[in-house]
Write a structure and sequence with these properties.
The complex is a heterodimer.
Chain A lengths: L1 E7 L5 E6 L9 H10 L7 E3 L4 E7 L2 E7 L5 H19 L4 H6 L1 H11 E2 L2 E2 L4 H7 L5 H10 L29 E14 L5 E15 L5 E6 L5 E6 L5 H7 L2 E3 L4 E10 L9 E8 L6 E9 L8 E8 L4 E8 L3 E5 L4 E7 L8 E8 L11 E9 L8 E7 L6 E16 L1
Parallel strand pairs in A: 8-23
Antiparallel strand pairs in A: 1-2, 1-5, 3-4, 4-5, 6-7, 8-9, 9-13, 10-12, 10-22, 11-13, 14-15, 15-20, 16-19, 16-21, 17-20, 18-19, 21-23
Chain B lengths: L4 H10 L5 H5 L5 H8 L6 H18 L3 H16 L8 H5 L7 H14 L4 H6 L1 H7 L5 H13 L6 H12 L4 H17 L4 H12 L4 H14 L5 H13 L5 H18 L11 H10 L12 H10 L8 H14 L5 H11 L4 H17 L19 H14 L5 H11 L5 H17 L4 H11 L5 H17 L5 H10 L6 H13 L7 H10 L6 H17 L1 H16 L4 H15 L4 H4 L1 H5 L22 H5 L32 H9 L3 H16 L4 H11 L10 H18 L1 H21 L12 H14 L20 H7 L1 E2 L10 E4 L7 E7 L11 E9 L5 E10 L5 E3 L4 E4 L4 E9 L7 E7 L2 E7 L7 E5 L2 H10 L5 E7 L5 H8 L3 E6 L2 E8 L5 E9 L2 E8 L2 H15 L1
Helix pairs in contact in B: 4-5, 5-7, 7-10, 9-10, 10-11, 10-12, 11-12, 11-13, 12-13, 12-14, 13-14, 14-16, 16-19, 19-20, 20-21, 21-22, 22-24, 23-24, 24-25, 24-26, 25-26, 26-28, 28-30, 29-30, 29-31, 30-31, 30-32, 31-32, 36-39, 37-38, 37-39, 39-40, 40-41, 44-45
The chains are: A alpha+beta, B alpha+beta.
Chain lengths: 415, 1031
């Protein structure tokens, strides 16, 4: 399986290495660095060298390169690397080079627990957190005074049970269960404003702080909307198949319960429209005008609107005025960012002005594109509704909350 | 250098002046260390490094845990940065005994990293691990096993073997899981352990806890994937438990079962292969139509059904594993479920996306229709990376058919205006491919491509030309106008590939194009500035035009050929030389058929992409890099006829929830637990014991005769949970504790010969010991105290007796040596030789034949043994007293000496009428043995047991042909079944009867001698003796 792991920063320095079998020289990373140099934004996930196979992911500006020596399902390694990073994020709330360097001892201890001989051992965050307590200032001070350590001496009970994702003996004074139903609209809109492709991708993130061993069931008003679902291991698949309800003993803390996809047959409501015009004549100044407006929002306001306009390469600079929000143009990446904010229906946000074009470039055929971001609170665009949440197995009455949010996923407009 | 806040803080916390200077040199965080590390140029670097190590040593030697911990943390920091910390090994290894769990873990981590380099020192820590393997805390047991097996020193392989064997029978599933992980480690350390490991793997595969199974299957695939027979027994259980195993185990199991299914079942698609895609559509539209679905083996069906829920996993690797399983072993009509899940993965991270797209691409070749519905999911976004874009393009063209082509073409059209040139070029090629495959749109595509010729982007134009060229070749339509349009482009296009294509096209159709001559003229003019590939096409064009009209083009051709004659590129010179033959001498035979050669109809190129190959198993590393990866085994082909069903029909029971387990628990007493445990053991070893087993059960507890072996699964899970519950939940403890207390006196009675450490043990620990004990007895029906010593590993002494047979020594002339010469003996001389026959008095004695010779002129009387000076443990059986020895005559005497398997000499005083004289009898190591023989299998098995420190290997160059004779001369050994160049001998030491195995392998003149013996000294001495004899 995984022979060694190297962590590389964006400037190409190996700043941490860990080996599970015989030591592999870090010079093996040269193959990776070469790929990084030739195209820093597009490094192949699998690189075959003469003796090693490098499987890598990139997250938070850190490149995680796993070295394998023999045949292994590549997704296994990639997925596992992502799980490692997820765990780091869970522990340190972020996973950047400086955080890893600051916490290298915990990182090392974590990696030792997560892998044995390069094969996954304990990956559930509930178990890991019992084995190695996440560092915080209070505990660090307490440990220096009492001489205790963050490392537990006994095996977490969850590891042996049938529900390894939940630790036992959980106690809260306020028992709460929150569910965020988040839906993302993924779309490609063409030049004329008609929808080429649109789908809704949703997930339910939970924050569960319940004492003891609660057994929850979550049911929906309209479960027929679901087309395709993937579950956290805690969800009982059989009950879903027969009754379309989610029955589960939840992990303690934050986790993603379910990801779903809404039936493509139903027409997706596109909540936003962008009117744009870009006229470029070579040798002259071009003109750009973009207006954003709401569409099919069911009465909610659209917030957090951001536009990312990928301009043609020939554009040198932009000189624009907007009636709302700020804009800036990155002349290297040729991306115009416009942070619009909330859309006021009375006065639609608008940006207009001139763009400078490099002389002699032929640009007429190149079409720019716009990536749009937005959020709409209190709305699940598919119309999905949670019916009720029941709890069994415990006596107390928990506080329950559901929140709906609609966001833009990969929402792209071709200009 | 900056100091991090954390660094100074910890420094204040310690307040030790000793370390202040050191701290100031900056060690606190990784960042600082790094800045030292990358500045080797500064002179202080080595200095400070050295000093720091001194300080670290000091800290490690101190008796304060927090100082040690701090030191270890910094050492781990050094390792993390890839700096050498091996010089600290002696200081670190001492701390392996520490009670502080964090310190211990860091030391373990250090050991795993450096043990390989520091073999000798690492061996010092072994005994600590062996002790830790017996700890009541399962985390420590598991940790010790992990490190012990992680120390890659081949010498300790036998120790690891024992540790794994014990851990595989541990009561904690966590430890058993670790044992499964340790198996591949040991296997990679020492391949010879395979047979023994397979036995353990078999046992672990039979385990019923989901925690263990995934790892057991992993060990199976790493060590013995060819042993399909091991899976028969557990197949049904694996299918049943698949959903409960952890995600990573699921991937391994599904991959393994895919292979298994390929060997055990028949191809479900065999019947509908001919109608291919069509059959798929049918079954999709009429899902209710049962007749269309092929009949599957029920077990085959079970596998597919139990894997199906995993498609809903959040883990991409699991989904991929199941999808490839459906692709490789499922009937075609059922792939649709897998397809949906694969498409879902496309919304994941870019790395996952790319790997999934590669898989989909391969699937689209054979299962086009399945992806039709998801067409729009493969539409390209500007945010995708180039490689993802290209993969999506290939998929789009693969799934194109008459009904969706218009959507695809419209989509492709928008891609042409992208600013990613590679992508644009690929798009145009994709259009070409669509045009090629779907005849209905060929004309549309062609005209579209022609309009692209007037595009301003050169890449677009060039690529279009190339694609049009290919298209025209496949088309019968009159390309005259298109070619004329392209000729006009020759002035503006600079891309060589495009220019070459135009010129080639023109050459092919030169008879219809009147402007061809002008083109050639212009090409001749710019010839020297053209790219090589264009020059070659110009040469081609020249010849083709020459053939069609000799007079008109003669001069022009000569000119071009002269230019190319002096070209820098040898390919062009070469080509010119070849083609010149057609022009220079028209009488040439070749020239006569020139028209046939150059103007014939050329076959159109076929389209195929390299990534479409179905060579490798989907989702494998080999598939993603499109070449065979190390250790890749291709999927076995389907058997024509399915092998007989040997899978067990016993249903596997799983405990679904804890509460259920608890209920069951209450109704079971300790006795039933142990008996069910035993019955499970018996299942592992074979079904034959079943009947006797149940007899025992009924005798031991009458009220539970009904508890059949099914309940064992429940029970076992139960115990594990019981243990953990006791650690955590106090309310439960009392309930379970009662159970244990009941049995406590009984336990004492049973095991009173075992030293009890009861005072410091809780009830739980007692329970633990009892369980461990009963597992160590293996299949033993009743716990008897006679077997005792339950903490020691099971040894198979009793088995040895039958397998090893003592054989008579080989008859060989044995040299006689003088032990007392006649001058020292005042006329009496004594010589001796080893007879190699067992001594009558005791089999552990060496039989010596003494010869007394009287060289005086008088009779010597009363020769006997006087004082004996012997090392402890040795004994001598004296020869019978010789009453008289005549002058010039000799008499024999037989002496037996038990050397106690050592080489200490026996000093004897010989008293006679001449006075007393001392003799010293020194044994040869080869004489301390008794020859035995055994089967080859047993020999190898024993040899594997005696690896590591017990093995001595030497190589000698030896021209001697009769190795056997030489070895017999040197040592009293028996021959075992062996081959010509691979001789095997065996013996037993006389006193302790420990095995001595010698094997001599000849390779040309070199002979490798391997001596395996429990007694290290004896082994190495024997090797030296053998070596000296053979040289």
């Amino acid at each position: 399986m995984i022979h060694s792991l190297f962590m590389i920063n964006s400037s190409g320095d190996v700043f941490l290495e860990k080996h599970w079998k015989s030591v592999v020289s870090r010079s093996v990373c040269d193959y990776y660095l070469e790929a990084q140099r030739t195209n820093p934004n597009d490094i192949p996930p699998v690189i075959a060298t003469s003796h090693h196979y490098l499987l890598s992911i990139r997250r938070g500006g850190v490149h995680f390169v796993a070295v394998c020596m023999e045949e292994v399902p590549p997704l296994f390694v990639i997925e596992f690397l992502h799980r490692i990073v997820d765990t780091f994020q869970d522990y340190f709330s972020d996973c950047t080079e400086s955080i890893i360097k600051e916490n290298y001892v915990v990182i090392y201890e974590l990696l030792d627990e997560m892998l044995d001989n390069g094969y996954p051992l304990a990956t559930e965050s509930n178990i890991l957190k019992e084995l190695i307590k996440p560092p915080n200032i209070l505990r660090t001070i307490a440990n220096t005074v009492t001489g205790k350590s963050n490392v537990s001496g006994t095996l977490p009970t969850g590891q042996l049970s049938n529900i390894p994702w939940r630790r036992t003996g959980v106690k809260y004074t306020n028992n709460e269960a929150y569910f965020d139903v988040v839906e993302e609209v993924e779309a490609i809109i063409d030049k004329t404003g008609s929808t080429v492709f649109a789908e809704i991708q949703g997930y339910i993130d939970c924050c569960i702080k319940l004492s003891g061993m609660p057994d929850l069931t979550l049911s929906f008003m309209n479960p027929r909307l679901f087309d395709d679902v993937s579950f956290h291991p805690c969800v009982r698949y059989k009950r879903w198949e027969s009754e379309k309800i989610l029955s589960f003993i939840p992990p303690d803390g934050n986790f993603r319960l379910i990801s779903y996809h809404i039936n493509t047959q139903s027409v997706v409501a596109i909540p936003i429209y962008v009117r744009h015009s870009l006229s470029i004549k070579s040798g002259e100044q071009g003109r750009l005008e973009v207006t954003v407006g709401p569409k099919q929002t069911l009465g909610r306001t659209i917030e957090g609107v951001k536009l990312e306009i990928h301009m043609p390469k020939s554009i040198l600079n932009c000189n624009l005025t907007s009636n709302q929000g700020k804009y800036n143009f990155d002349p290297v990446a040729k991306i115009l960012h416009w942070d619009v904010g909330r859309i006021d229906v009375a006065k639609l946000p608008n940006i207009r002005g001139s763009v400078a074009i490099a002389s002699g470039a032929n640009t007429t055929e190149i079409n720019p594109s716009i990536n749009v971001h937005f959020t709409i609170n209190q709305l699940a665009v598919s119309g999905l509704k949670v019916y009720r949440l029941d709890m069994y197995g415990e006596k107390y009455k928990p506080f329950k909350g559901v929140k709906y949010i609609t966001k833009a996923g990969r929402f792209q407009i071709r200009m | 250098m900056l100091h991090s806040i954390s660094g100074t803080m910890t420094h204040h916390a310690y307040g030790k002046t000793n370390f202040e200077r050191e701290k100031a040199s900056g060690a606190g965080s990784l960042d600082q260390d790094y800045s030292v590390g990358i500045d080797p140029a500064s002179g202080v670097f080595f200095n400070s490094d050295y000093r720091r190590h001194e300080d670290l040593k000091e800290m490690l030697d101190s008796n304060k845990d927090n100082l040690k911990l701090e030191a270890m943390k910094r050492i781990i920091g050094m390792i993390a940065k890839g700096r050498d910390a091996s010089s600290l090994f002696p200081a670190v290894v001492k701390n392996v005994v520490s009670k502080n769990i964090e310190l211990k873990k860091l030391v373990y981590s250090y050991l795993e990293r450096y043990a390989e380099e520091k073999e000798d020192l690492a061996l010092l820590s072994i005994s600590t691990f062996q002790r830790a393997l017996k700890e009541p805390n399962q985390l420590i047991r598991a940790g010790a096993l992990r490190v012990l097996s992680g120390i890659r020193v081949s010498m300790i392989a036998p120790i690891v073997m024992i540790a794994i064997r014990d851990a595989a029978a541990d009561m904690s599933p966590y430890v058993r899981k670790t044992a499964a992980h340790a198996i591949p480690k040991l296997y990679s350390l020492d391949n010879d352990t395979k047979p023994e490991l397979i036995v353990i793997i078999e046992k672990l595969l039979a385990d019923r806890t989901v925690l263990v199974i995934g790892s057991a299957v992993m060990a199976f695939t790493k060590v013995c994937p060819e042993r399909v027979d091991l899976i028969h027994k557990v197949y049904l259980k694996l299918c049943a438990l698949l959903g409960d195993v952890d995600e990573w185990g699921q991937v391994i199991i599904v991959n393994m079962l895919t292979r298994y299914a390929r060997t055990q079942f028949t191809d479900p698609c065999k019947n509908d292969k001919d109608n291919g895609d069509r059959a798929f559509y049918d079954s999709e539209s009429e899902a209710s139509d049962k007749e269309n679905t092929p009949t599957l083996d029920p077990d085959h069906r079970l596998l597919l059904r139990s894997a199906r829920p995993l498609l809903q996993s959040r883990n991409a690797a699991v989904v991929m594993a199941v999808a490839q399983m459906y692709h490789h072993i499922g009937p075609k009509s059922e792939t649709i479920a897998a397809v949906k899940a694969l498409v879902r993965l496309l919304r994941s991270n870019p790395e996952v996306q790319e790997l999934v797209l590669k898989t989909i691409l391969t699937m689209t070749v054979t299962r086009k229709g399945a992806f039709d519905v998801y067409l729009k999911s493969f539409f390209v976004r500007t945010s995708d990376s180039t490689r993802i874009k290209l993969l999506k393009l290939n998929i789009l063209t693969n799934i194109a058919n008459e009904s969706n082509i218009s959507i695809i073409l419209r989509e492709l059209e928008t891609y042409i205006s992208s600013y990613d040139d590679d992508f644009v070029a690929a798009t145009i090629q994709a259009i070409g491919r669509c045009a090629c495959f779907i005849t209905a749109v060929t004309d549309t595509c062609l005209s579209g491509l022609v309009t692209l010729l007037s595009n301003k982007n050169e890449v677009v134009v060039a690529e279009s030309v190339v694609v049009i060229k290919r298209l025209l070749q496949t088309q019968a339509a009159n390309p005259k106008e298109i070619i004329q349009q392209m000729i006009r482009l020759l002035d503006s296009i600079d891309v060589a590939q495009a220019r070459a294509s135009i010129i080639w096209l023109l050459g092919e159709h030169c008879r219809d194009i009147p402007t061809a001559s002008n083109v050639l003229k212009r090409a001749a003019k710019s010839f020297s500035n053209e790219e090589d590939i264009v020059k070659l096409q110009v040469l081609n064009l020249a010849v083709k035009l020459y053939i069609s009209d000799k007079e008109q083009y003669d001069l022009l051709c000569q000119y071009i050929f002269n230019l190319s004659k002096y070209d820098q590129n040898y390919d062009i010179r070469d080509r010119a030389r070849l083609l010149r033959n057609f022009i220079d001498n028209p009488s040439n035979k070749l020239a006569a058929s020139a028209a046939k050669i150059f103007l014939s109809c050329k076959p159109a190129p076929t389209y195929r992409t390299s990534e479409e190959s179905d060579l490798y198993q989907l989702g494998s590393l080999s598939h993603s890099i499109n070449s065979k990866a190390n250790g890749y085994e291709p999927l076995p082909p389907w058997p024509e006829v399915a092998p007989p069903n040997v899978r067990e029909v016993e249903p596997a029971q799983v405990v679904s929830t804890q509460s259920e387990a608890k209920l069951e628990k209450i109704f079971h007493s300790w006795e039933t637990e142990s008996s069910s445990e035993l019955s499970e053991e018996a299942e592992g070893s074979g079904e034959s014991d079943e009947s006797s087993e149940s007899d025992n059960k009924s005798s031991s507890s009458d009220e539970h005769t009904s508890s059949s072996s099914d309940s064992s699964s429940g029970d076992e899970d139960d115990e594990d949970e019981e243990e953990e519950e006791e650690e955590e939940d106090s309310s439960l403890e009392t309930e379970e504790g009662d159970n244990v207390i009941l049995t406590e006196p009984e336990a004492e009675k049973l095991f009173d010969n075992v030293p009890q450490k009861k005072t410091e043990k809780s009830n739980l620990d007692l329970l633990l010991d009892l369980e461990m004990n009963d597992q160590n007895f293996g299949g033993g029906p009743i716990l008897t105290p006679s077997l005792g010593g339950f903490l020691s590993p099971v040894t198979s002494v009793t088995n040895n007796v039958q397998a090893i047979q003592v054989v008579p020594s080989v008859d060989i002339p044995i040299k006689t040596s003088e032990v007392l010469n006649r001058i020292n003996g005042k006329g009496l001389s004594i010589s001796y030789r080893f007879t190699r026959n067992p001594h009558l008095f005791s089999p552990s004695m060496v039989n010596l034949n003494l010869v007394f010779t009287n060289s005086t002129s008088e009779e010597i009387s009363d020769i006997r043994v006087g004082e004996k000076t012997l090392s402890p443990g040795m004994s001598v059986h004296e020869f019978a007293c010789i009453t008289s020895l005549n002058p010039n005559s000799s008499l024999p005497g037989t002496l037996g000496i038990d050397f106690n398997d050592s080489l200490h000499p026996a000093n004897l005083q010989i008293i006679s009428s001449l006075g007393s004289s001392n003799i010293c009898l020194k044994p040869d190591v080869g004489e301390l043995l008794r020859p035995v023989t055994m089967s080859e299998e047993y020999f190898l098995k024993e040899q594997i047991k005696l690896k590591g420190m017990n093995e001595h290997v030497g190589i000698v160059s030896c021209k001697e042909t009769n190795l056997k004779q030489k070895i017999y001369q040197a040592a009293n050994l028996g021959l075992c079944p062996s081959h010509d160049n691979d001789l095997r001998f065996a013996g037993q030491t006389l006193t302790s009867s420990s095995l001595v195995l010698v094997s001599a392998t000849r390779k040309d003149v070199e002979v490798t001698i391997t001596v395996n013996c429990e007694k290290l000294v004896l082994g190495s001495m024997l090797l030296n003796t053998l070596k000296s004899v053979l040289q």
